[in-house]
Amino acid sequence: MSKSIPKIQIPESKEKIMRQINALETMIKEDTNDYDRHVHETALNDLQKALKQSQIRESLEGYKQLGFDGEKLREIEIGLEKGIDVPKKIDIENDHQTDDCDWEQDLKRGESHMAKKQRLFIDMDGTLAVFTPVDELETLYEQGYFLNLEPIDNVVQAVKGIIRNYPEIEVNILSAYLSDSPWALAEKNAWLDKYLPEVDFAHRIFPPCGCDKKDYIPGGITERDFLLDDYTHNLRLWQPPARGIKLLNGINHTRGSWENDRLRCDKEPAKLATNILGIIWNDEMIRDEKPNELKQRIWDEPEPEHDGEWDQDFI
Question: Does residue 287 lie in a domain region?
C-alpha cells in the first residue's frame, strides 16, 4: 500500500514562502529516499504556485493603484498568469494601448530555458535608473517616485543591444523594492514597461528590501551568473561563486572599496555592452575609474537614431 502525500500548509507571508522554498530545494538535493524526495518536490511545487499567485496579487494591486481596472486589468492578470508582464504594450503616460505585442513570442521567450545559459542580472535604482536622493524617507513612499526616475540611457541602450544581438545570454532584472509601499512594485514594473519592455515579467525579480538578492534567484547562483549593480554590499554577497560588476554612476564608489570589475555609465552603449560581454565570455577584468560627472542623454523618440548602429566588435 502506497503512502499518502501530506499536504503542506501554505504560509500567508511571501517571505515565509520563499524561505520554505529555499529550504526544500536544499532538502531535495540531499534526499536519498524516493518517498521523501516525492513529498518534498510536491510541497515545493505547491509553494512555487502560491508564490506566483502572491506576486500576481501584488502586481495587480499596484496596477489598480495606477488607475487600471475592468477589462484592462483582466488582460493584465491573464498576461501575468502566462508569464508576460503586460498583455499589450501600454503607454503609461497616455493610457493608450497598441496591438504590436507578439504574445506567442513573448510567452515563448518567457518559458525558454537553456541548462547552461549564462545569466546577467541587472539592478534598477542607480544602475538602469538615476537614483534621486531624498531628504526624508517618506519621499520614497510617495506615488510616482519610482515611476518618474530618469533612465541612465547609456546603460538601458547597452542592455537593449545585448538582448537584441545575443539571445544566448539570459537577461534578468534583479531589483529590491519597498514591500510596505503601495506603489513601489507596480511602478518598477511600469518603469520597465516604458524603458525596457524587452525584459518580460518572467525575467523580473523583486526581492524585498533588506534581503539577500541571491536568495531569490531560481535554482541559486552559479559561476555562470553575473550581477550588474551600483551597490558594493550587493556585489560582495554575490561573489563567489557568481561574479559582480559595479556600475559607476557618478555618485557611488566614493571610497573605492570595490576592487573587482567596474564599468562607467558614461561610456557609449556599444562600448559598455562590449565590456559586459567581455567580462561574461572572456573573463576580462575591467576596472574603470569613477566618472567625473553623470551626463544624462535622454531621447524623446522610443528608438534613437543611433540605436542598433553598434561598433564592429559589438555586432
Answer: yes
> 90 or 76, which is more confident?
76
Question: Is 272 part of any domain?
Answer: yes
Residue 191 within a domain: yes
The burial of 270, by beta-carbon neighbours within 10 Å (0-12 exposed, 13-18 middle, 19 or more buried), is given as buried
- The CATH number that applies at residue 313 is 3.40.50.1000
> 304 lies in a domain?
yes
Q: Is 263 exposed, middle or buried (0-12, 13-18, 19+ CB in 10 A)?
A: buried
Q: Is the pLDDT of residue 164 over 70?
A: yes
How many independent structural domains does the chain possess? 1
The DSSP-derived string for 28-52 is HHH--SHHHHHHHHHHHHHHHHHHH
N-term to C-term CA, the chain: 62
pLDDT for the residue 82? 56
Q: What global pTM score does this model have? A: 0.60
Of 72, 3, 19, nearest to 215 by C-alpha is 19
Q: Indicate if the pLDDT at residue 131 is higher than 80.
A: yes
Find the domain containing 144 and state its range.
113-315
CB atoms within 10 A of CB 159: 25
Phi-psi region of 46 (alpha: psi -120 to 50; beta: other; left: phi over 0): alpha
Amino acid 152: pLDDT: 93
- Nine-digit cell at 72? 484592462
**pLDDT digit string, tens, across residues 184-212:** 888 999 999 999 999 988 889 988 887 88
Spatial separation of the C-alpha atoms in residues 301 and 299, rounded to whole Å: 5
The one-letter code for the residue type at 85 is: D
